[in-house]
Specification:
By secondary structure, the chain is of the alpha+beta class. Strand 9 and strand 10 form a beta hairpin.
């Protein structure tokens, strides 16, 4: 049976004695300006086996590199039985209860040969621009790791709900692989194995039919663009030393991701806001006004771009450019000549809290609609980087499943 752009795979989960409430930790690229969140996670986890030991929270990257420790712990979890193969040559369907509603997904091995973050012509496409300097630290973490822990969410455009939803419904009558509460207000998560040939054939047929309607574009990377780009770079490096036969089924050729349906009501496109630190707010704002005028655009009162504690604006005469694209282009230029730094924040209240400091400026943005999302990627390549987020930070993917990549 053929699965366009994906394949079934072996998936590992913690052994029955492992406390799942301390095992599952939110994606490493969340709460990057809130070290308190991660200190709380550390206190919850304690000495228990946890995915916290299998990754590096990005908020602490500047404090030192613990890649070797992470890789050693991965190997130790395999050797001592903390991790066990729970699914053989299959998939996992998941149901996540979040503040935004009940969200369904399908864990699959995505073929990196069908994906390239620099082009918009392949089966799997990036949805935002890639920040090149964010990739080397991630490559360093993955390139020698024996395992991968996925937080990439990949969207399919399935308005008739033919792929994921029927599979979840069919599997809910069976015993779940896991059924847990997620720490730090992450909601509830269940997962079921898809290993039998009948279910896999049904899935292959549904995906193949969707592919026939997709005009060569079946998968959009909704969340985790940089993580998937990292997997692609690592695969290209590995592939360079392989024969074509060896490359055909090498585990590094694939990346474990969660497929989700764009039309799932619980998938909300939230804006990703900005906070600029160590900055003169008036200097930045006045510079932005001058930049907009120079571009032949006009600022009017509105809510498209709101400088916290100052004014909010909308753009006119933008010739189809998204307000976030105009703002980001300006910020890129501005930061090149200043000592200021920037962070990308999920959640309006967090932005407001971080803006209290006298040398910090929060910038609130509006989200983008889901309508026409795939058409927009198909026509324009991708959105500006950090345009949208699929839910708030605590609704991001938690690390649970593990896959060997060596």
């Amino acid at each position: 049976m053929q699965f366009p752009g994906i394949k079934p795979t072996d998936i590992y989960l913690p052994a029955p004695h492992v406390d799942l409430s301390r095992w599952a930790v939110v994606a490493c690229d969340q709460f990057t300006s809130q070290p308190t969140y991660w200190h709380e996670v550390e206190a919850i986890v304690g000495n228990a086996p946890s995915t916290l030991r299998l990754m590096q929270p990005e908020v602490f990257l500047e404090q030192g590199d613990n890649t070797e420790t992470v890789n050693a712990t991965m190997q130790a979890y395999l050797d001592n039985g903390t991790l066990q193969c729970a699914v053989r040559d299959g998939f996992i369907v998941v149901e996540r209860e979040t503040p935004s509603g009940k969200r369904l997904g399908l864990m699959v091995a995505l073929d990196l040969e069908c994906y390239d973050f620099t082009t918009g012509t392949l089966l799997t496409r990036a949805t935002e621009g890639t920040v090149a300097d964010r990739l080397p630290p991630r490559v360093k973490i993955r390139e020698n790791a024996p395992l991968e822990l996925p937080h990439v969410l990949v969207l399919i455009d399935d308005p008739d709900r033919t792929v994921i939803e029927p599979m979840v419904k069919a599997k809910q009558a069976t015993t779940p692989l896991y059924d847990m509460e997620l720490m730090q207000n992450g909601g509830h998560l269940c997962g079921w194995a898809v290993e039998d040939e009948g279910s896999k054939a049904t899935l292959a047929d549904a995906l193949s039919k969707l592919y026939e309607q997709a005009d060569g574009f079946l998968y959009a990377v909704g969340d985790g663009n940089h993580s998937l780009a990292t997997a692609k770079i690592c695969w290209e490096n590995v592939k360079a030393s392989l024969s074509p036969a060896e490359a055909e089924n090498h585990p590094a050729r694939y990346a474990l991701v969660e497929l989700e349906n764009l039309h799932d009501e619980a998938i909300l496109f939230e804006p990703i806001h900005r906070v600029v630190f160590h900055v003169d707010a008036n200097d930045l704002i006045e510079g932005f006004k001058a930049y907009v005028t120079k571009q032949g655009m006009t600022l009017v009162p509105g809510s498209e771009i709101v400088f916290v504690g100052y004014e909010g604006y909308a753009l006119t005469n933008a010739n189809g450019m998204l307000p976030i694209a105009v703002l980001q282009n300006y910020l890129d230029e501005y930061l090149q000549t200043r000592e200021a730094t920037i962070d990308y924040i999920h959640g309006e209240q967090t932005v407001r809290d971080l803006s209290v400091a006298p040398d910090s400026l929060g910038i609130l943005l509006e989200g983008i609609p889901k309508d026409g999302f795939f058409d927009g990627i198909r026509a324009g390549g991708h959105f500006p980087r950090k345009t949208f987020s699929m839910g708030e930070a605590n609704e991001k993917r938690y690390y649970v499943e593990v896959r060997k990549i060596r």
